[in-house]
Amino acid sequence: MVTVNQNYLKLPGSYLFSNIAKKVSAYKEANPEFKDSVISLGIGDVTQPLAPAIIDALHKSVDEMAHAETFHGYAPDLGYEFLRSAIAKNDYQSRGCDISADEIFVSDGAKSDSGNIQEIFGLDNKVAVCDPVYPVYVDTNVMAGRTGLYNKERENFDGVIYMPCKEDNGFLPEIPADEVPDLIYLCFPNNPTGGAITKAALQEWVDYANKNGCVIIYDAAYEAYISEEDVPHSIYECEGARTCAIELRSFSKNAGFTGVRLGFTVVPKELVRDGAELHSLWARRHGTKFNGAPYIVQRAGEAVYSPEGKAQLKEQIAYYMRNAKTILEGLSAAGFSVSGGKNAPYIWLKTPDQMTSWEFFDYLLEKAHIVGTPGSGFGAHGEGYFRLTAFGSYENTLEAIERIKNL
Ligand code: MLT
């Protein structure tokens, strides 16, 4: 008789953003008169078109696919050399990080990598996550069987170390006091709170991980939004990170590839645990389960690092960060308690009048036709908070803030 992976049955409800999409569709169906006025500042999906340098690279590589001499079939499973070299040079070596092209694994996006990376670790590893947290880290460890059951009262999973990120600790995780984790997921600049970590504070995590044999899975998907000097763009800016950290990066947020799909993972060769090089394990996993990101998409990724691409994307980031400023200042003037939005495209706000996160979600949707993301969807300590994204159009962002002010 076929049995199913019982771990899946531990997961309550559906994936956060699928759940929100369903709710919004139901609302639009029930209220067709407001269908066109709904503004989404919910999921962190970009709205600006791909930059011209990227479009040119796509056109050119699509044309190459039309001729036998320049046609490309399966991509190398770890990524084309031209892209891996551009990443190593521009994202790492230019910042003084000792990362080489062959430590970079190109993929179809950071969501897949952040979900898949846990596969190379034993099931008995203890996982630590921030609370609130990007749900993929927890859900994929639940699916793998690395956690206990969902505890309805605590609204989290047994067997996971949750590191509360609250107002009184500046929404930053603290090193667990009672128990030493094996795998530590950190995301900076942070999704969902929009908070950032200084290099000195990140160095403490690296030192802790090296001292205790932990591995940090560092999600740097939002690094392009960093505006402050002492905030690191990569964990490899910290001394000793090569022996304790894996870094995940995305082309979605810095270059608008949410619908194109491209990302990469860095696994330094010095990272050894349990007698095995994690680089070799990830290469084995990648080679077996992934046939490489498409040639045309990797050429588009290469264009991100061209002089034109860099200039155009700088403008795109500035466009979204103007939205972040508009939200931050607008809500602050309206009396909301807000944070984030300075080094990240997310604004984290306290719900007014003691509303729960989902009550505020319904209230905003019904009264202002605005979609955001309930903080409790990211974890128990997100309750009473709400996330807005800066990825909308400027016009919609202005309109949304006006509507919220007028509530
Ligand atoms: C989010 O809204 O948290 C992100 O868009 C999700 C993702 O990048 O997968």
From TrEMBL:
<dbReference type="InterPro" id="IPR019942">
    <property type="entry name" value="DapL/ALD1"/>
</dbReference>
<feature type="binding site">
    <location>
        <position position="134"/>
    </location>
    <ligand>
        <name>pyridoxal 5'-phosphate</name>
    </ligand>
</feature>
<feature type="binding site">
    <location>
        <position position="191"/>
    </location>
    <ligand>
        <name>substrate</name>
    </ligand>
</feature>
<feature type="binding site">
    <location>
        <position position="15"/>
    </location>
    <ligand>
        <name>substrate</name>
    </ligand>
</feature>
<keyword id="KW-0032">Aminotransferase</keyword>
<protein>
    <recommendedName>
        <fullName>LL-diaminopimelate aminotransferase</fullName>
        <ecNumber>2.6.1.83</ecNumber>
    </recommendedName>
</protein>
<feature type="binding site">
    <location>
        <begin position="250"/>
        <end position="252"/>
    </location>
    <ligand>
        <name>pyridoxal 5'-phosphate</name>
    </ligand>
</feature>
<feature type="binding site">
    <location>
        <position position="44"/>
    </location>
    <ligand>
        <name>substrate</name>
    </ligand>
</feature>
<comment type="similarity">
    <text>Belongs to the class-I pyridoxal-phosphate-dependent aminotransferase family. LL-diaminopimelate aminotransferase subfamily.</text>
</comment>
<keyword id="KW-0663">Pyridoxal phosphate</keyword>
<dbReference type="GO" id="GO:0033362">
    <property type="term" value="P:lysine biosynthetic process via diaminopimelate, diaminopimelate-aminotransferase pathway"/>
</dbReference>
<feature type="binding site">
    <location>
        <begin position="110"/>
        <end position="111"/>
    </location>
    <ligand>
        <name>pyridoxal 5'-phosphate</name>
    </ligand>
</feature>
<feature type="binding site">
    <location>
        <position position="134"/>
    </location>
    <ligand>
        <name>substrate</name>
    </ligand>
</feature>
<feature type="modified residue" description="N6-(pyridoxal phosphate)lysine">
    <location>
        <position position="253"/>
    </location>
</feature>
<dbReference type="GO" id="GO:0030170">
    <property type="term" value="F:pyridoxal phosphate binding"/>
</dbReference>
<feature type="binding site">
    <location>
        <position position="222"/>
    </location>
    <ligand>
        <name>pyridoxal 5'-phosphate</name>
    </ligand>
</feature>
<feature type="domain" description="Aminotransferase class I/classII large">
    <location>
        <begin position="38"/>
        <end position="404"/>
    </location>
</feature>
<dbReference type="GO" id="GO:0010285">
    <property type="term" value="F:L,L-diaminopimelate aminotransferase activity"/>
</dbReference>
<dbReference type="InterPro" id="IPR015424">
    <property type="entry name" value="PyrdxlP-dep_Trfase"/>
</dbReference>
<feature type="binding site">
    <location>
        <position position="291"/>
    </location>
    <ligand>
        <name>substrate</name>
    </ligand>
</feature>
<feature type="binding site">
    <location>
        <position position="387"/>
    </location>
    <ligand>
        <name>substrate</name>
    </ligand>
</feature>
<feature type="binding site">
    <location>
        <position position="74"/>
    </location>
    <ligand>
        <name>pyridoxal 5'-phosphate</name>
    </ligand>
</feature>
<dbReference type="InterPro" id="IPR004839">
    <property type="entry name" value="Aminotransferase_I/II_large"/>
</dbReference>
<feature type="binding site">
    <location>
        <position position="111"/>
    </location>
    <ligand>
        <name>substrate</name>
    </ligand>
</feature>
<feature type="binding site">
    <location>
        <position position="191"/>
    </location>
    <ligand>
        <name>pyridoxal 5'-phosphate</name>
    </ligand>
</feature>
<dbReference type="InterPro" id="IPR015421">
    <property type="entry name" value="PyrdxlP-dep_Trfase_major"/>
</dbReference>
<comment type="function">
    <text>Involved in the synthesis of meso-diaminopimelate (m-DAP or DL-DAP), required for both lysine and peptidoglycan biosynthesis. Catalyzes the direct conversion of tetrahydrodipicolinate to LL-diaminopimelate.</text>
</comment>
<keyword id="KW-0808">Transferase</keyword>
<feature type="binding site">
    <location>
        <position position="291"/>
    </location>
    <ligand>
        <name>pyridoxal 5'-phosphate</name>
    </ligand>
</feature>
<feature type="binding site">
    <location>
        <position position="261"/>
    </location>
    <ligand>
        <name>pyridoxal 5'-phosphate</name>
    </ligand>
</feature>
<dbReference type="Pfam" id="PF00155">
    <property type="entry name" value="Aminotran_1_2"/>
</dbReference>
<comment type="subunit">
    <text>Homodimer.</text>
</comment>
<comment type="pathway">
    <text>Amino-acid biosynthesis; L-lysine biosynthesis via DAP pathway; LL-2,6-diaminopimelate from (S)-tetrahydrodipicolinate (aminotransferase route): step 1/1.</text>
</comment>
<dbReference type="InterPro" id="IPR015422">
    <property type="entry name" value="PyrdxlP-dep_Trfase_small"/>
</dbReference>
